[in-house]
Amino acid sequence: MKSARMMSQLRLLQLPLVLLMLLTTLGVALAQQRQRRGRDWAEGSHIVRTEGGELVDEDTVRTAREIASHSTGTPNWTNDPAFARDVFTFVRVLYSRAPDGPDISRSASHWGWVTDFPDSDLNLSFRLQQVTSMKTDPEGRVLRLTDPALFDYPWIYMVEPGRLRLKAEEIEPLRKFLNNGGVLWADDFWGQKQWDNFARAIKRVLPEREFEDLDITNQIFHCVFDIKVPMNKLQTPNSRRGIDSLNPNSGVFGVTWENYHDDYDNYDYQGRAAHDMHVRAVFDDKGRIMVIATHNCDNGDGWEREGEDDGFFHEFSEKRAYPLAVNVMFYLMTH
What pTM was computed for the model? Predict the structure, then answer.
């Protein structure tokens, strides 16, 4: 009896140690999962992962075609070799993210510049080649704002700029690019804090310019597809929210705004801060668009996730994200 009692006491003494080991193992696993899902945001880190888990070296990546699809695959196409350089290229900007803070929403995803990559780039490029007279680059391009190759392209794309951090050395190249005829499209950021952070960054680049809201009567909405719906009927959420919004049994049936992107300090289930989609632009003195921003809208998921769900494709990719993108790209390339 004494021996059994001692063994029981020993097991009780060992229990906290076992729990500690389990908690430690769980903590390591969670840390590894976070690292697998996103990136190490420490200064100097240059390896990121796509949403499909593919490793991307920020120091060497050049094209979307180098990286495997994480959705339903991407199309392949070719152009006449004689006109290989006479094509439109989807150029994705590789940027740094600002740390969390009181002036920057914590609700921006952890993916940053690599969000929707590479599927959105290649899918949109293919659709542009399909439905317009434009020929498009089947490789795509990735570059930093400090890359001299920036000036080889008329258009660049920045995803999730709600936590954009422009470095001092990036401001002058971007200013020169925009003043010399280039255009920046910013997409997939939600709520007031994310907008404010992006607008502050652009103000550093173009201090004399202001954003203007475009309404649905603007020519940009009618140049290829004649879009006549209210602006919020062009709103595309991420694919999960989009699918749920189509389900009458879902708690977010009909909700196409990403309410969980509202500033966490003032969380509102109805998502008022992210409810209304805006298309805003900065113009030069001649009325040319220099920067266009689709705020409270995730067009990138409409391109990226087009093949994953039939309902999402027909409601959001086919009716919203692609018609808007085709119109925007055609307008920018012809004005």
Answer: 0.85
